[in-house]
Amino acid sequence: MSKKKLVVLTGAGISAESGLKTFRDSDGLWEGYDVTEVATPRGWKKNPELVLDFYNQRRANVRDAAPNAAHQGLADLEKDYHVHIITQNIDDLHERAGSTSVLHLHGEIFKMRSEADESLVYDIQGDIKWGDKAEDGAQLRPNIVWFKEPVPLIEDAALLVRNADLFAVIGTSLVVYPAAGLINYAPWPIRKFIVDKTIPYTASVMNLTKIEKPATQGVPELMAILRGTAG
User: Fold this and answer.
1) Phi, psi dihedrals of residue 2, rounded to the nearest 5°
2) φ and ψ at 36, to 5 degrees?
3) Which residues contact residue 96 at a Cβ distance below 8 angstroms, ignoring those fewer than 6 apart?
4) 193 with 229: CB under 8 angstroms?
5) Where does the chain hold its CATH 3.30.1600.10 domain(s)?
6) Best label site of 17, 26, 109, 114, fewest CB within 10 Å?
7) How far is CA 189 from the centre of its chain?
8) How many Cβ atoms from other residues are within 10 Å of residue 117's Cβ?
9) Cβ(99)–Cβ(84) under 8 Å?
10) What is the full per-residue pLDDT of the chain (231 aa) written as tens digits?
11) C-beta neighbour count of 167 within 10 angstroms
12) d(C-alpha 152, C-alpha 172), whole Å
């Protein structure tokens, strides 16, 4: 029997348990920075060196982090399902855990691009410095989707959710759009799950199972439920 397609939307909560913080931890501050200064086009124009330094620190943080039981559990589910992960996170912890289909809605910390041409993308492990140029001569910037920028992969993500046999949301508050709206693309008859230490408002979602636990505790519970319905 062919495997069912499991589509999973993950957010900051799954990486928080690996020690990676987000701006939502404390009133719009991200590691002590105002997000408007480091995660918007305006902030980049105002002080690009500050933005580069901020993301160089984030890159170092991600290098030092390790996948946790939630990342590993989702990778393990590939034994039973065609698992497609849509993540709002810029880290590579899903890939390091072994997941083979990961769509990064908001970009990737280990990639950089020309500030003039978003199609000129390069891998990066170390720091991006002011004066580092892409092949078109433009300054290199993190390949991150900042606030007030379009989300290029949102249509690809919506198509994945539309074609899901099962849909799960893990570690996201469902308040950052357009990502939060993806849950509305899931076909109403399919079974849906949400795993978070604080379940967001989901009254309009049909066939929803809520697991109110942190990701590292909730994903094993989700796995147990799914493995009873695999096939």
Assistant:
1) -70, 150
2) -70, -20
3) 66, 67, 71
4) no
5) 22-64+111-144
6) 26
7) 25
8) 12
9) no
10) 689 999 999 999 999 999 997 665 544 556 678 888 999 999 999 999 999 999 999 999 999 999 999 999 999 999 999 999 999 999 999 999 999 999 999 999 999 999 999 999 999 999 999 999 999 999 999 999 999 999 999 999 999 999 999 999 999 988 888 988 999 999 999 999 999 998 887 777 889 999 999 999 999 999 999 998 544
11) 27
12) 20
Position of tokens 């379940």?
199
Tokens representing 23? 């701006």
- CATH 3.40.50.1220 occupies which residues in the chain? 1-20+67-106+151-231
Helix, strand, coil in percent for the chain, rounding step 5 = 35, 25, 45
Q: What is the pLDDT of residue 29?
A: 56
Write down the catalytic residue from 71, 84, 94, 106.
106
Which CATH architecture best describes the domain 22-64+111-144?
2-Layer Sandwich (3.30)
Superfamily of domain 1-20+67-106+151-231: TPP-binding domain (3.40.50.1220)
- pLDDT at residue 75, as a whole number: 98
pLDDT at 23: 60
Tokens 């002590």 correspond to: 32
| Residue 213 per-residue DSSP state | S
**CA distance linking residue 214 with residue 135, whole number of Å:** 43
DSSP state for residue 201 in the 8-state scheme: P
